């Protein structure tokens, strides 16, 4: 039988990770809203373009068909590739930034001297690895996955998503093989570029929800964090 808490017990109860969950929810809502809006706008623009094409007249019927196909292909490319990938790039950047905020805030509250990181190690991965070791969190697989996703973010920020322009191209190529939902493609005809598939970001958010908010609780209970 579940015990009902009094109002005093509720007010005195410590709830861990609520701000983290809220920020993760915000990222997920941004992605879903933006993508659903793009889908609606695509349908609207496609219908509008079809009507405009119907008004055009050509002496050569083959030119009319070619013009129509080109105009409609432009609409599909704009919404399915150009705008969609920009939204997913922004969503990935927002997600990694949220994770960084959460972990770096925990670092500031640490009750122990924080070890220095190696120059090649990402700061967020370093902080997570330290808490993972100190609190015995068992997040090794999560850390490896997050490190790969962070490197994808770095490629987007520092090399516009173009693999051949990224300093750690070969390392990133190897990591892409471990990420179901991200691959390299030539969708913009500029060379191999990061392509984020539908649902990938939402899946990462859902996975991060299972472990990131609980770090604060576990570390606090072990005396690793100041209140």
Give an overview in words:
The protein is mainly alpha-helical and 227 residues long. It has one domain. It is built from eight helices and two strands. The chain has a two-stranded antiparallel ribbon. α3 (61-108) packs across α5. The chain is elongated. The chain starts with 6 loop residues before the first helix and ends in a 6-residue tail after the last helix. Mean pLDDT is 88; it is low at 9-15. This is Apea-like HEPN domain-containing protein. It comes from Litchfieldella rifensis.
What is the tally of beta strands?
2
- What does the largest sheet look like? 2 strands, antiparallel
Beta-strand percentage range: under 5%
Number of domains: 1
Arrangement of strands in the largest sheet? 1-2
Runs in which pLDDT lies below 50 for 5 or more consecutive residues are: 9-15
Q: Provide the structure class.
A: mainly alpha
DSSP helix count? 8
Query: Taking Cα atoms only, what radius of gyration do you get, to the nearest Å?
Result: 23 Å
Organism: Litchfieldella rifensis
Protein name: Apea-like HEPN domain-containing protein
């Amino acid at each position: 039988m579940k015990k009902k808490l009094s109002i005093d017990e509720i007010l005195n109860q410590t709830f861990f990770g609520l701000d983290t969950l809220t920020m993760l929810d915000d990222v997920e809502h941004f992605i879903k809203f933006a993508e659903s809006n793009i889908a609606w706008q695509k349908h609207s623009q496609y219908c509008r373009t079809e009507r405009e094409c119907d008004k055009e007249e050509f002496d050569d019927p083959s030119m009319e068909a070619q013009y129509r196909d080109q105009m409609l292909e432009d609409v599909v490319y704009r919404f399915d590739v150009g705008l969609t990938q920009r939204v997913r790039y922004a969503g990935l950047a927002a997600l990694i930034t949220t994770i960084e905020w959460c972990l770096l805030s925990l670092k500031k509250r640490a009750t122990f001297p924080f070890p220095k990181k190696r120059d090649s190690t990402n700061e967020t991965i370093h902080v997570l690895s330290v808490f993972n070791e100190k609190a015995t969190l068992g997040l090794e697989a999560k850390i490896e996955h997050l490190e790969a996703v962070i490197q994808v973010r770095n490629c987007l920020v520092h090399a516009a998503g173009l693999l051949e322009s990224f300093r750690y191209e070969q390392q990133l190529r190897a990591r892409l093989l471990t990420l179901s939902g991200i691959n390299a493609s030539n969708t913009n005809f500029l060379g191999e570029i990061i392509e984020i598939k539908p649902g990938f970001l939402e899946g990462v958010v859902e996975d991060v929800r299972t472990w990131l908010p609980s770090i604060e609780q576990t570390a606090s209970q072990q005396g690793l964090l100041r209140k």
